[in-house]
Amino acid sequence: MKTMLLFLSMLYSIDVHCVPTLFCMATYGKVLDVSARRLRPILQHNKFCTERLLPGRSAFKSDQFQYTSCDIMLYGAGSTSQLSSDAVGLALLDEIDDWDEGDEESTEGGMFGQAESRTKSYGVYAKTVIATSPTTADRIGYREYLTGTQSEWQVPCPHCGGFQTMVFKEKKGPGGFRWPKEMRVPAEVYENTWYECKFCEGMIEDDHRYEMQQSGRWVDTKENNRHKSYRLSSLNVLPDIYPMGHFAERYLKCFPIDSNGKAMTGATAYPDRLHIVVNHD
């Protein structure tokens, strides 16, 4: 989901922004693999892109795509020489929490700092877009999120219309995922899970989620921060991919329920996978 957002940003650069664009992943080998399997098919089968491709066989290389409006360059974060070369107007950075940062004490140093510094010569036209799944609070991904607007995707309840951010909440109080208390086997819970509205406590089912997502909106939770940052949760993925039972099942596998209906200790992960997107203008 988040990497596709970076691909769409490339299309934006080809059509609108028209500046040299850098796409960077943790290693050079990984970026070549993603390019061959996912990116190249998108660009090669898109008439909009092929019409803008520079003439000649050399315009479409394994790590560089040359268009009449801009160049797209694919780099690995492990190469200091690549990240410190030519200036770019748009830097697309994928899974920066996986990068070997080196000196992470300052964003002026380390791989992230080098990648972002390449946009400085473009001034007000420069953009840096980061997409990552946060690992720990002290890594760059989450730190960049906290210095931004911390926008959340809110959807309306199909019963009362109250807008809310969907969260996996197992604690007492209104709102969150629910299933019959007597059920403790993950396979059983998978077929009997719903979401409870935090306002009216109405039952929200998978069939409601399509219309809810269509009516959703981004809401900034922090004002006057230096850039836009977004929190994307897999809870907002359509039920064709992740039905509600999927999250409840994963929760029970992470937090086994004892005979009293309480979560046991020793859990290792929460069921909803978070994604952070940061847009530096």
Describe this structure in words.
With 281 residues, the chain is of the alpha/beta class. It is 28% helix and 20% strand. It has 9 helices and 13 strands. It has helices at 2-17, 28-44, 47-50, 80-83, 110-117, 140-146, 186-190, 209-214, 244-254; strands at 21-25, 64-66, 71-76, 90-94, 127-132, 151-156, 163-164, 176-178, 194-196, 203-204, 217-219, 228-233, 274-280. Strands 1, 2, 3, 4, 5, 6, 7, 11, 12 and 13 form a 10-stranded mixed β-sheet that branches. Strands 8-9-10 form a 3-stranded antiparallel β-sheet. The protein is elongated, with a radius of gyration of 22 Å.
- Rg over CA atoms, rounded to whole Å, is 22 Å
- Unreliable parts: 103-108, 264-271
Average of pLDDT: 84
Largest sheet: 10 strands, mixed
Helix content: 25-40%
* Span between termini: 22 Å
Number of beta-strand segments: 13
Please tell me what the overall shape is: elongated
Task: Note the main attributes of this structure.
281 residues; alpha/beta; 10-stranded mixed beta sheet; 3-stranded antiparallel beta sheet; 9 helices; 28% helix; elongated
